[in-house]
Design brief:
By secondary structure, this protein is mainly beta. The protein contains 1 helix and 4 strands, in the order E-E-E-E-H.
Length: 93
């Protein structure tokens, strides 16, 4: 299984803490809030699987939404077959 990591920016899942409070804040007229619990939590990056041009060929890669917005991901053409333009030879002129 592939990890949840962006291939372009390196963004990955990070950890943090969720605090639970009780009481009324002082600025609302209370005596203040107290921390009653701390729980570990995860911050998950917005990872998308897209088809991108990597080393000249289209491949499926996992990238963050931020990398897509920054323009780091180059997507292939929508059509299945791309035709090369016909070159005009000089001797026919």
């Amino acid at each position: 299984m592939m990890p949840r990591v962006c291939q372009f920016t390196g963004r990955r899942t990070s950890s943090g803490t969720q605090y639970t409070h009780r009481g009324k804040p002082k600025y609302l007229g209370g005596v203040g809030t107290k921390v009653t619990g701390k729980t570990k939590r995860k911050f998950k990056a917005n990872i998308q699987t897209v088809t991108a041009i990597v080393d000249g060929s289209p491949k499926r890669v996992k990238v963050s939404a931020k990398a897509i917005r920054m323009g780091l991901v180059v997507k292939p053409l929508k059509r299945k077959y791309s035709y090369k333009p016909v070159e005009k030879s000089l001797d026919q002129a």
